[in-house]
Amino acid sequence: EFIEEAAELCRFHFGNNTAFNRKGWEYILSQHGGRLPVAIKAVPEGSLVEVDNVLFTVINTDPNCAWITSYLETVLSKIWASCYVATLSRECKQTLKRYLDDSSDNLGGLDFMLHDFGCRSTSSEEAAGILGLAHLINFKGTDTFPALKVAKDYYAADLTSLGFSVPALEHTLMCALGQKGEIDVVRGLLKKYPLGILSVVGDSYDYCNFVENYIGHVLRDEILSRNGVFVVRPDSITPEFPTPEELTLWTFESLWSNFGGVTNSKGFRVLRPQIGVLWGDGIDKDGIEKILIKLVQNKFSVEKIVFGMGSALLQKCHRDLQRNAFKCSAQCRNGTWYDVYKEPKDASKTSKRGKFKLVYDEQNGGVLVTVPETDPRPDQLVTVFEN
């Protein structure tokens, strides 16, 4: 059925019956039971590999099917997206750890400092699941629920330690009673969720009034009586504080004035355990660092802020960012292997040649490097698919 469907699509697409390789696919069906005669070797998932190195190789195992490897290029090249998200997420974690080391005595919250808000930003539920799972290599906080299903279905993941979320308010509920009823919504939530983390968005109307008056005064005692953390979420800038970093600093200063806290051994102010802040609107890696810089400059420990990243984490990316490409590098003709490569005037687009492997270079810090197949060091590419 698949062959017939492909033949029909190609007939309309190319305007003829000759472009589609029916003979080749029927050979695979008759001689291999429809299974693809290729061997794929790949570096284990989660490995740290610098750009410009091999991630996987594909070779046909039946000489009559040399053409099949090129058919797989478009399908397999799509791993670029999850590789990129995992890399970006890791870079954010390194940045967060650096400022946490500088300003905090408590490093235990690092795994929850970047929350995945990207589910609505992705192009499909499938993309949300695949890319959301890439983030969970580094962090444990996510609102991209499809990632949990992908982890369970394809990796038999341990859901008890994978990805978590908390009760969190959005504007649908915060605006339900109008501006005058906003404080009543929050008061009701405090009663409904007396334990654990409760994240509340504050910019529905007047954010500064929400933080300074509602949270800092009217509801202060109720917040302090909870056995958990009440998280304030700015979600948008204001005319008085036109950048995320300025508004975040003001938020910390207001909460410090009204709730207080302690000064840690490094000389940084730490808000009370019952209060915290989350910035989750339009933020990217550089924006996160700007906020961290502003807080540290003003002697606040960054342990009391977390971030939610959406489209910048899962969707604002493309294949060229890490120069992912799939090229032919070697061909066997009449029993002899020949290097195949391109070498255009743009030297950055020169492709790898020959048959190669991925090895640890102990003389250069143990990084993974691509070397010819004849290199005696053990290949880190392992067979993940064969016939």
Number of helices: 14
What share of residues are in beta strands? 15-25%
Order of strands in the sheet with most strands: 3-9-8-5-4
End-to-end CA span: 21 Å
Largest sheet: 5 strands, parallel
Plain-language structure description:
With 387 residues, the protein is of the alpha/beta class. Helices cover 37% and strands 16% of the residues. It has 14 helices and 14 strands. β6 and β7 (269-271) form a beta hairpin. α6 crosses α7 (146-155) and α10 packs parallel to α12. The protein is elongated, with a radius of gyration of 27 Å.
Keywords:
387 residues, single chain, alpha/beta, three-stranded antiparallel β-sheet
Reconstruct the topology from this structure.
Layout: H1 2-14, H2 22-32, E1 38-42, E2 56-60, H3 68-71, H4 73-76, H5 79-103, E3 114-116, H6 125-135, H7 146-155, H8 171-174, H9 182-192, E4 198-201, H10 207-218, H11 220-224, E5 230-233, H12 244-259, E6 261-263, E7 269-271, E8 275-279, H13 285-297, E9 305-309, H14 311-314, E10 330-333, E11 336-339, E12 356-361, E13 367-372, E14 382-386
Parallel strand pairs: 3-9, 4-5, 5-8, 8-9
Antiparallel strand pairs: 1-2, 1-14, 6-7, 10-11, 12-13
Helix pairs in contact: 5-6, 5-13, 6-7, 10-12, 12-13
Task: Provide a concise account of the structure shown.
The protein is of the alpha/beta class and 387 residues long. Helices cover 37% and strands 16% of the residues. The chain has 14 helices and 14 strands.
